[in-house]
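Inputs:
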Amino acid sequence: MDRYTTATLRVNGQDLQVVFPTHHTLLEVLREECGLTGTKHGCELGECGTCTVLVDGEPVLSCLALTAEMEGRSIETVEGLQDGNELHPLQAAFADLGAAQCGYCTPGMLMTATALLAENDDPSADEIRTALAGNLCRCTGYHKIIEAVEWAAGVVRGDAGAGPAREVLFGSSVPGEGS
Amino acid sequence: MAVIRDMMPAFELFRPVSVDDALQLMARHGEAAWALAGGLDTFDWLKDRIKRPEAVIDLGAISEMRGITADRGGLTIGAMTTLTEVATSPEVVESFSLLSMAAFHVATPQIRNQGTIGGNVAQDTRCWYYRGGWPCYRAGGNICYAAAPKAMNREHCILGAKRCVAVNPSDTAPALIALDAQMVIRSAGGERVVAAEDFFMSPAVDITRMTVLEPDELLTEIRIPETWSRARFYFEKVRDRQSWDFSLVTVASAMRMSGGRVQDARIVVNGVAPRPVRVTEAESVLIGSPANESIGLAAGEAAIRRAKPLRHNDFKRPLMRNLIRRAIRGQEA
């Protein structure tokens, strides 16, 4: 039996040569062979969505995809979102709005939302809910997650007034200091 | 103690690039072979170590099994076409929106991106006793745990049970039956075409299989005839959670009207029986009548007359009746 496979995977724009057990999922190879542990093991059954990565731009469950199918396809993980030291607008919005509570679902949420914004940079709250229907948040902080995606969409569009007021994020200013 | 490092046990992986190669592999490996489509059903079984195939034949590289083509007013859909492609295809949306709605109601966006229409119709049941590896009738044993006196059977059958009370979980299956689809099945020995209505297996015939597919056969494409193109369609799937879930009861219907009366109709329900069922009792009430509230109610009542609920699923009887009523009268009426 041919137990190992050698393949070149295109991950976050880089070609990585990997040798992996043929029956391993994309999630296992991303975490173990590629060292990209941002993508999480969750239910392993397709119920939670925390293992979501983008394959050729589409959100897929990396726990239910064989790595052997991935040669020649473009894979994007949460590690590829930030540009140098600059967070992706979605990451910044999630951080500033507290849209991550325990944080375990966040990588999957970010990747699914990335695909949504690539297709539609002005989604309604319902469109965001539909797009994120496959990503469970066990802390049930959905409201902030949806707000964060709306805010990030505004930033991506270049809408200067996007997002909540400063007071909502950081509290109101001290009386007497002016605003 | 053994340390389990792998998410699933090793298997030999084959990635044929043509249907002929896949069929030869299926014939060569016989019972040890497992045809892999999108993987959503497959990897669940493999990770739980309940099914342990030696040879996994991945159909993902066979381009001739993908895509949607127009065919004499109808459509031919490759079995490996993803559910997202089916749900969003302009041809499907325009002429057979029933199937588009059904595909859109499958699980989550991720699963629709990976899952295929062939896998959706050929998937195994979700009865948790069976999925949990219990040695029930369907698994070759001699008991149905879901019909036992204290069983949890809220999601199970109210119709057509024969020893096994598990239901078919497919959302696209009832739509395909309502559209009179034809399932094209190939083996190394040749091709056969089966009506969608006859594609699903009754436990009275073979309790261990969900479809008529033999171990050496593949569903390669689904043909939708022109018959119901742009007919009056209705699809509704009732589930516990609106974000995504398996169906409790689903109705898919197609109707042709003539002079204010129903000329012909297909009403198909899933989630109530071991296989998706065409409700001919409701259709016969309907044909020749106006599609209104009272006919809808009469058809719904006729459809549930033979229902035999289990301990926890009596709610499916009025649910099925009301879904049929809504399918007939339309949503706004």
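The helical segments of chain A are 26-32, 89-97, 106-119, 125-131, 142-157, 166-170. Flag for discussion at group meeting.
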